[in-house]
Automatic annotation (TrEMBL):
Domain of life of the organism encoding this protein: Eukaryota
A Pfam family that the UniProt record links to this protein: 2OG-FeII_Oxy
Protein name: Isopenicillin N synthase-like Fe(2+) 2OG dioxygenase domain-containing protein
InterPro entries: IPNS-like_FE2OG_OXY (IPR044861), IPNS-like_sf (IPR027443), Iron_ascorbate_oxido_reductase (IPR050231)
Residues in Isopenicillin N synthase-like Fe(2+) 2OG dioxygenase domain copies: 76-170
Amino acid sequence: MKELVKDPVERKQKNASPLPYHGWVGPCEQVSLFDTIHTLATQMEELNKLVWLMLIDSYGLEEESLKMIYKTLVRMMKYMSPSPGEYKSGLHSHTDKPVSTLICEDQISGLEVEVNDSQWIMLSNLSPSSFIFVVGDPLKAWSNGRLKSVNHRVMMSGDKDRYSIAAFVIPNEGTIIKTPKEFIYDQHPRLFKDFDFMDFFHFAFSDLEKLIDSGE
């Protein structure tokens, strides 16, 4: 992974995908690496399915209530260490736009989540075999607000680069995010209208959405 991300920026720009979250598409000649990545992606997809089944079971719902055709998009990310004594942003605060995300980190801390009163907590001292499951905005809408898509960011300090791998769940074109009827009743009315995932996904990365976020 470290060798792959060392490729020159110019080469990465030539192979960059215009689609949100897709980033740089690596060189196909590194077949052995991509075999490894494919195996990892398959395993992360299975783990994501298991978490979804646990969520469905905890709410007493049928498996069909969270069933969709999707692809698992795997990204490898490198965060550069800051200058000595600095504490800087490696990734701005945001909520995830895919349905859900699984993150596998190295042993360099940096991922922070926002809790009550705008306090940030760093996730640290995780075991090398740990995975972090992140609820995306669509999953929050599916649950009618029961599941929270928390703000998170990466903050860097120290003298070591940070590496992580993330697997994003991206539903196919035409997928409608719909709240199950079991989540809607008098004490908990509908909070979100049904929506087309891909329309939401593209809007989330549009100039209009950025303008709304900025408050202008």
